[in-house]
Design a protein that fits this description.
208 residues, 6 helices, four-stranded parallel β-sheet, alpha/beta, four-stranded antiparallel β-sheet, single chain
């Protein structure tokens, strides 16, 4: 894509290439997400969407090309920890929550800043407040084990964990088929939150 004038993108790929054996998943891809943007990433299975997302979130290193954060080359050493430290979050289609842990405990796993005395109560309070904002009337008990929740409730929790602000504010959130387990009402709730998030300067990649 051709860069428009203005501030540097929150995150960008330049000439990204990735192959798995003889399969070339990405061939010189340019991709950028700016503050205030929600970018749709649409394609059939095998088009390279997951590979691109895994490079954005630090799960994969590109074979060639560059990863830029606010215009700075961050390719060397860019991994999941580095991505999260820069506010890059991802909600995958396959949920990543631990079913044997509570909602609050899952939040602690993804946000190390929730440690310390009485962290469970703090985590529960933050998750409850954010769920209230994103999904009003959600009915999710933050002390419940995730394995005891319905699929829609688990999806709502996964989304809230990604948008949760503890030590580092989310700046770019990648949503991979986020409405696949949500009904019409909850999908509309999520879209409304995406609009609020981007209006405040965040960036969202919406995959379908």
């Amino acid at each position: 894509m051709t860069e428009a004038a203005g501030p540097a993108p929150l995150i960008a790929l330049r000439g990204a290439e990735k192959s798995f054996g003889a399969v070339r998943a990405l061939a010189g891809v340019d991709f950028a997400i700016r503050a205030g943007e929600c970018v749709g990433l649409v394609g059939h299975n095998g088009a390279g969407k997951s590979t691109l997302v895994n490079i954005l979130n630090g799960g994969l290193a590109p074979d060639a090309g560059a990863i830029l954060l606010a215009g700075r080359d961050a390719t060397a050493g860019f991994d999941i920890r580095a991505a999260r430290a820069q506010g890059v979050r991802c909600v995958f289609q396959e949920l990543s929550l631990c079913p044997n842990l509570t909602v609050a405990e899952n939040a602690r796993i993804f946000h190390a800043g929730l440690g310390g005395w009485n962290w469970r109560a703090r985590a529960a309070g933050l998750m409850r407040a954010l769920l209230d904002v994103i999904f009003p009337g959600h009915g999710v008990a933050t002390g419940a084990a995730v394995g005891d929740l319905g699929l829609t409730e688990r999806q709502m929790v996964e989304i809230a964990v990604a948008f949760l602000e503890v030590d580092v504010a989310p700046r770019v959130v990648v949503l991979d088929e986020p409405t696949s387990s949500l009904d019409g009402r909850r999908a509309a709730d999520l879209v409304a939150h995406v609009r609020r998030f981007t209006a405040a300067g965040g960036g969202v990649v919406f995959i379908s």
